[in-house]
Amino acid sequence: MAVSDMTKLTLGPIAYHWSAEARRDFYARIADEAPIDEVYLGEVICSKRAPFHEVDLPATIERLERGGKRVILSTLAEVMLKRERKATADLAAMDSPEIEINNAAGLFARGKRPHRIGPFMNAYNEATIAWMAGQGATHVCLPAEMPGPAIATAAATARDLGLGVEVQVFGRASLAVSARCYHARAHGRTKDNCQFVCEEDADGMPLRTTDDHPILRVNGIQTQSESYIDLLPEAGQMVAVGITHLRLMPQAVDMVAVATTFRELLNGGRNVAEAEATLRQTCDGISFSNGFYHSQAGYRRIAAAAAG
Amino acid sequence: MSLAELICPAGTPAALRTAVDAGADAVYCGFQDATNARNFPGLNFTPDELAASVTYAHGKGAKVLLALNTYPPAGKVDLWRQAADTGARLGVDAFIVADMGVADYIARTHPGVRLHLSVQAAASSPEAIRYYCQNFGVKRVVLPRILTIPEIREIRKEIPCEIETFIFGNHGLMVEGRCSLTNYLTGQSTNMDGVCSPASDVEYKRHEDGSMSSQLAGFTIDCFGADEKAGYPTICKGRYTAPHRPEGYYAFEEPVSLNLSRLLPDLIDAGVHAFKIEGRQRSKSYVRGVVSAFRQAVDDIRAGREANIADLVALTEGQKQTQGAFETKKWR
């Protein structure tokens, strides 16, 4: 039986500094082949990177819309410098496409006009979601660290308010952002003379403990989880409590295959065990985690049976 | 010139009295639960303790600021509302908040009590700060520790509220209120539970060669030679390896504490209204020493006298200290 063929699959914004060419190829393939409903575009992590790819944005939007995808533009998570304030205000001034706001500076600029709330906005609870809805929010993406019971309560609130509600179900979790660039630091540079060394790590720069266990990933000013969040086994529960959108974060794996696997689970073409086995093949050698959802340490993988 | 209030940490009623006696203009504290970002065992206040503490502080002309600066997870909002109601009933002078739902509740239910925007809200631009001022009547923002003094001076011109900055103590590296590192390794959340690198998950392991490693939830965060003092395993102060750094390095920051003593005159000149000393987890003697020294320095500067900055610098002597982002953009 289908989990839900009404549930939307979304593709989050690319967190890494992929080249303009890599992005063009990536989105062309997403437009043509991926069973994804909505795509978030734009630089969310580092304002220095934006000039490299924003020139392609109109063509990418057109390409994706031609492929039947709804496009949403995401704003920066950290807004401090003049260029970051301006980039945020410029996006907030747009009438279309939709925008997803990741910093309160964007909320200020947007006023009460319609917008989505991004995962960096800390919409942890029903009171905050209700406040945001009153200010024009139409949709909210919950923080990656929220546990299942809180997700269920938040989803019920969103439903009552007529909001879309979204959870990241695939890809590395954002664990922190900073004013300091840790990619530059690793190479003995500072943020202002980084020379875009982050482009060398399409899936983040791995950090290991000194006794050689993988632990975190560095992506410029962002710190991410070493493991990919995988909430495929939990997707059915989330749809049942009212989550309307499931977010896949772009990683350096075959994202068309990832999206296809989730879509087949949602429309009943595959059961959880089959879909999970396929996902593991697509992400060969990568550890999966779902600890946050189960109120455990985020890196942990709680077995599907225990997940109920 | 700004008032240059000294905002001092009070992890316990005894520390609160010590800080007040040492010259704090205000103390900040929290309840013994997840409603504040220092939800550590053995710290914080019962409602009865807070009532007595408010009376003590007010009797000596000091204010009490109640930290309600975590993010309630859905389904648990009532705990934060009850904490706000209790604080208002006991007469605290301001609430320090981060969550919009909590801010909205207090603004509507307790409009007579000042709202301060916690550093946990990560408001680092004039627009973000004005959002909270406009919607919740925030009277003061605690700035994230990521701005230079020229940037603070610029922000001051564009916002309708007071500015508070950290000046001394533990130096967090990540944007506050956006960090899930502790939850990733331990299952306890900084934002939702008020926990950061919890002591219950800390272990020190002695190795055969005499070296020691500090661990958090089984992950090695740093290692120390036999003759070195082992530091506390805070994830963002840990030593890791990367492809270009196989020798191991402090990927985020070395274990340093913030000491802006030397910048105090510049910060006052930039229009900072209040200076926050970190350390609710610290001892009474620490609080007494640090608060007294800063009291003297601020009084000297306000009276136009040369402040004895050397005494403040000496507070962290023997430890590594930093001026963080405040002095130069190169920190980034």
TrEMBL record, chain A:
Forms a heterodimer with UbiU. It comes from Sinisalibacter aestuarii. Belongs to the peptidase U32 family. UbiV subfamily. HAMAP family: UbiV. Keywords: 4Fe-4S, Iron, Iron-sulfur, Metal-binding, Ubiquinone biosynthesis. InterPro entries: Peptidase_U32, RNA/ubiquinone_mod_enzymes, UbiV. [4Fe-4S] cluster binds at residues 46, 181, 194, 198. Pfam families: Peptidase_U32. This is Ubiquinone biosynthesis protein UbiV. Its cofactor is [4Fe-4S] cluster. It comes from the Bacteria.
From TrEMBL, chain B:
Transmembrane segments: none annotated. One of its GO terms (molecular function) is peptidase activity. InterPro entries: Peptidase_U32, RNA/ubiquinone_mod_enzymes, UbiU. It comes from the Bacteria. GO terms for biological process: proteolysis. Keywords: Hydrolase, Protease, Ubiquinone biosynthesis. Pathway: Cofactor biosynthesis; ubiquinone biosynthesis. Pfam families: Peptidase_U32. Required for O(2)-independent ubiquinone (coenzyme Q) biosynthesis. Together with UbiV, is essential for the C6-hydroxylation reaction in the oxygen-independent ubiquinone biosynthesis pathway. Belongs to the peptidase U32 family. UbiU subfamily. Forms a heterodimer with UbiV. This is Ubiquinone biosynthesis protein UbiU. It comes from Sinisalibacter aestuarii. The gene is ubiU.
